């Protein structure tokens, strides 16, 4: 272990006429051992120890997990005892509070208390993680351009030839992300900047196409590779047959991008599938069946520049381990297609490699609710079949255990998104 010190944030951040003392033990343990051990037992976001360790501490992005969810499962003793290098000892009582459960005196009362869905229409599925908006970051220079929600900001480091693009999320709903990137490129050209830092600290994701468009602005003329597979199930095959036929009968349906529609996607080489069978023929991976690798039709943006501003060797990605979801897609494109190198900061106080991407990796988030939405559209598809004198496939041909129904689950609509069928599958992220 490296000789690093931990401090209480209140002591380190306050202004006193004395120097703060480092913490030398917490509940009799070395601080690193106590913090990491406790966090690993309770963290549900990361599996990587360096990312978990970074998450513990208060940073410019906000409070760390030590002051929030690290104690969700309770405490091992009545007090938390801190010992400092100056000999000071502080004991803090551990207390738990209970949620008000007045009038909850039966199973039905409990159900009504916590599981009734909110009134109103269906909620749209988010394609990715919710973005974290950040207004001003301590230690950063004044932004030369910033999106209204603060998720994208551009800087030029003082007295340098280095530009910085800081993404706390990938969000381009109103084209503001595109504008910020253009503003930086224009400013860097005027200032003669030759280096670029792409800051992805604390970036948990965002909108997939926002990540793709950001890559295209930095690498004009290069189409980002966004590939995925779907699980090949009897229900998936049924939907695929229906929606692929619908797209053959009405090509305008392709734009709706139904997930098992072979015509709304292309193969890994960017070519159309010759037929439905080519798309759906099962490919077995670790005992599970999947479709062929597919890529969605991606309408590329028209970058304001036709030439790259920065060479790959003059760009670097800055990670802190928290990169996840769309952030990983953006980072992978920068790395594999752009040849951009990366640096990861923080982590456990030890030498050795650290993983920059420790969040969930994958493609578009498609919840159970998205499948239900496709089921609800089947009557429209059936009408098109009948209009063309075609027999509509019967959903009864799908084995009952694989059928998806549109009625609400027994514990409320929230289970559409909170059900996690892949929890027992273990680690699926490779070391990167």
From TrEMBL:
<dbReference type="GO" id="GO:0006508">
    <property type="term" value="P:proteolysis"/>
</dbReference>
<dbReference type="InterPro" id="IPR052766">
    <property type="entry name" value="S41A_metabolite_peptidase"/>
</dbReference>
<dbReference type="InterPro" id="IPR029045">
    <property type="entry name" value="ClpP/crotonase-like_dom_sf"/>
</dbReference>
<dbReference type="GO" id="GO:0008236">
    <property type="term" value="F:serine-type peptidase activity"/>
</dbReference>
<dbReference type="InterPro" id="IPR005151">
    <property type="entry name" value="Tail-specific_protease"/>
</dbReference>
<dbReference type="Pfam" id="PF23658">
    <property type="entry name" value="PDZ_CPAF_rel"/>
</dbReference>
<feature type="domain" description="Tail specific protease">
    <location>
        <begin position="161"/>
        <end position="347"/>
    </location>
</feature>
<dbReference type="Pfam" id="PF03572">
    <property type="entry name" value="Peptidase_S41"/>
</dbReference>
<dbReference type="InterPro" id="IPR056186">
    <property type="entry name" value="PDZ_CPAF-rel"/>
</dbReference>
<protein>
    <submittedName>
        <fullName>Uncharacterized protein</fullName>
    </submittedName>
</protein>
<feature type="domain" description="CPAF-like PDZ">
    <location>
        <begin position="17"/>
        <end position="98"/>
    </location>
</feature>
């Amino acid at each position: 272990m490296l000789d690093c010190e931990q401090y209480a944030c209140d002591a380190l951040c306050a202004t006193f006429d004395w120097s703060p003392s480092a913490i030398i033990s917490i509940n009799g343990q070395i601080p690193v051992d106590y913090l990491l051990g406790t966090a690993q037992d309770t963290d549900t976001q990361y599996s990587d120890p360096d990312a978990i360790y970074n998450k513990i501490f208060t940073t410019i992005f906000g409070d760390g997990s030590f002051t929030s969810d690290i104690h969700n499962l309770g405490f091992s003793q009545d007090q938390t005892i801190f010992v400092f290098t100056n000999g000071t000892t502080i004991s803090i009582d551990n207390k738990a509070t209970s949620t008000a459960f007045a009038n909850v005196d039966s199973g039905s009362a409990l159900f009504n208390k916590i599981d009734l869905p909110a009134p109103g229409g269906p909620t749209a599925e988010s394609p990715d993680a919710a973005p974290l908006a950040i207004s001003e970051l301590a230690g950063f220079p004044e932004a030369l351009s910033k999106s209204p929600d603060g998720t994208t900001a551009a800087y030029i480091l003082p007295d340098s030839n280095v530009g910085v693009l800081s993404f706390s999320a990938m969000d381009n709903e109103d084209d503001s992300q595109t504008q910020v990137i253009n503003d930086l490129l224009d400013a860097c050209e005027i200032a003669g900047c030759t280096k670029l830092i792409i800051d992805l600290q604390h970036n948990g994701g965002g909108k997939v196409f926002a990540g793709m468009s950001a890559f295209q602005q930095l690498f004009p003329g290069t189409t980002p590779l966004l590939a995925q597979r779907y699980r090949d199930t009897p229900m998936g095959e049924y939907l695929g047959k229906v929606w692929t036929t619908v797209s053959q009968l009405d090509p305008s349906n392709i734009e709706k991008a139904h997930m098992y529609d072979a015509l709304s996607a292309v193969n890994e080489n960017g070519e159309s599938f010759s037929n439905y069978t080519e798309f759906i023929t099962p490919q077995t991976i670790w005992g599970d069946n999947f479709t062929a690798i597919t890529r969605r039709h991606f309408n590329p943006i028209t970058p304001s520049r036709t030439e790259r501003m920065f060479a790959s060797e003059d760009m670097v990605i800055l990670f802190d381990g928290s990169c996840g979801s769309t952030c990983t897609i953006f980072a992978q494109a920068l790395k594999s297609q752009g040849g951009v190198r990366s640096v990861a900061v923080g982590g456990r106080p030890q030498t050795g490699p650290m993983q920059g991407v420790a969040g969930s990796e994958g493609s578009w988030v498609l919840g159970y609710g998205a499948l239900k939405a496709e089921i609800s559209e089947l009557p429209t598809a059936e009408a098109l079949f009948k209009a063309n004198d075609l027999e509509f496939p019967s959903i009864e041909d799908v084995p009952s255990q694989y059928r998806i129904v549109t009625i609400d689950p027994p514990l409320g609509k929230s289970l559409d998104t909170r059900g996690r069928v892949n929890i027992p599958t273990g680690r699926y992220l490779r070391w990167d």
